[in-house]
Design brief:
Helix content: 10-25%
Number of domains: 1
Number of strands: 15
Radius of gyration: 20 Å
Shape: globular
Largest sheet: 6 strands, mixed
Amino acid sequence: MARIKPRSISAPDLAEFVEQGSDFSFEMLVLRTLRRLGFDCSHGGTYQDPVTQKGRQFDIHAERLVGESHVALAVECKNIQEHAPLMLSTVPRTSAEAFHQLMYSPHNSPFKRTRSESGDRSFYLPGLPVAKRIDQVSRNQSGVLTSDDSATWEKLSQAVNSCHGLIERHAHPPSSLVTAIVPVLVVPPQRLWRVDYDANGQLTHQPHLVAQVELFLDRTWTVPGYPGTGGMSYRLSHLEILTFDALKPWTERCWDDEAGLFPTPKVTR
């Protein structure tokens, strides 16, 4: 049987790939947007993977300071296509999962520590949907629905693992800044779906388009500290999955006095 020769790739084919299917083109769009939103960005740098100890490349590290509240994001970008959207299955977040950590310098301390904001002071409130499962759904050549999230899971892992470098960078020296470190995956609009279950596994909401989903992680990275301290541990509670059009409102919420990463002290009367 004669072997079919693949069709050669032309300049218009490459232009179409850049316009419609290129992860890098989408990554550059996200980079420009973050810079317009006031973030200082490092693009395409390398880091040592804390799991494999191999050198890897991150998409974007984005940092912004408002007053003394500092947000550092490890951002990965995935130009998911409409034939293989991302669907996340959620359950109500438990009280034990409702937390996020901040890095700060205690008064007169030579090294930084972390503290947890939990309950109604957390960025991640109890009872709200939190993702526990990822599926990237498509049809195979026979038309059968399948799930293969390997490529997207690789991006998620890179966002989480490259947070190690951000934690290490900001673990010292001491400063007056309070820092939140968050891994983020950005995908195109109309590519992110959510299906909701109750705590007993009963379906409560059929798959529906959303702009943002929080994936529960509970991943701790420990970085070297000052001599005798045993290092500093930072606990990543969630990974944010955002569509491109949710990027601006989500970053603005980070500094919100009521619902942000840096809760203001409650006033009692």
